[in-house]
Amino acid sequence: MSTDRASSVVSLMLTRVGVAGWAAWSVLAIAMLTSTSFASLQRRTSICGSEGLANPRAWVFRLVPLGQTCAGEATVAEAILHIAATTFAALAASVGIAAVVILLVRGWTTALPPVAAWLLWGVLVGIVLTAIAWAARAASGIPYSETGGESLSIALALSVAFGVGLAATAVTGVFVTAMRSSHN
C-alpha cells in the first residue's frame, strides 16, 4: 500500500470518526434539551397533586435516570421512558467522548480533516459556554439542587449552552470550509 493511499485511508477514517462524534454530541445535546424543556413545560401546565395535602408534593428532576417525576414517584411508563432516555444519552456521550479521544490522540501525529478538527473546536466551545452558564447560575444564587433532585433550571441552561456551542461551531465550520474551497 502506498503512502498516499495509507494517508487517504487514515483521513477517511478520521472523517468518519468526526462525523460520528458530531452526531453523538448533537444527539446528547438534543436529548438533554428535550428532556429539560419537557420537564419545564410539565411544571407550568400540569399539577403534581399537592392541592389540599398536608405534605405537598413537588416535581423532582433527576439526571439519572433522566427525567422528572411527581414527588419522585414514577409510573411504569415514566420509569421506562426515563431509563431509555438515560441509556440513550449515556450511549451518545460515550460515542462522543470516544470520538474526541481518538481525534486528540491521532491529531498529535496526523493532520486532521476539517470535520474532525471542527468537532474538537465545537466540543471545546460547548464546554466553555457550559462553564460560563454554570458560573452565571452560581453567581445568581440559584441552588444546585431542588427537593430530591437536581435543579431543572440549571440543567436546562447547561444543555442550551452546550447545544449553542456545538451549533455555532458547526455553522462556522461549514462557512469557513465553504469559503476555503471556493477560493481554491
Q: What are the key terms here?
A:
184 residues; mainly alpha; two-stranded antiparallel sheet; 4 helices; 7% strand
Task: Write up this protein.
The protein has 184 residues and is mainly alpha-helical. It has one domain (10-46, 56-183). 73% of the residues lie in helices and 7% in strands. The protein has helices at 3-45, 76-107, 114-140, 152-183; strands at residues 59-62, 67-70, 145-146, 149-150. The strands form 2 sheets. A two-stranded antiparallel sheet has the order 1-2. A two-stranded antiparallel ribbon has the order 3-4. A hairpin with a 4-residue loop joins strand 1 (59-62) and strand 2. The chain is elongated and about 75 Å long.
Measured as a percent range, the helix fraction is: over 70%
Mean pLDDT: 84
List the secondary-structure elements in sequence, H or E.
HEEHHEEH
Using only C-alpha atoms, the radius of gyration works out to 21 Å
Structure described in brief:
This protein is mainly α. It has helices spanning 3-45, 76-107, 114-140, 152-183; strands at 59-62, 67-70, 145-146, 149-150.
Compile the SSE list and pairings.
Elements: H1 3-45, E1 59-62, E2 67-70, H2 76-107, H3 114-140, E3 145-146, E4 149-150, H4 152-183
Antiparallel strand pairs: 1-2, 3-4
Helix pairs in contact: 1-2, 1-3, 1-4, 3-4
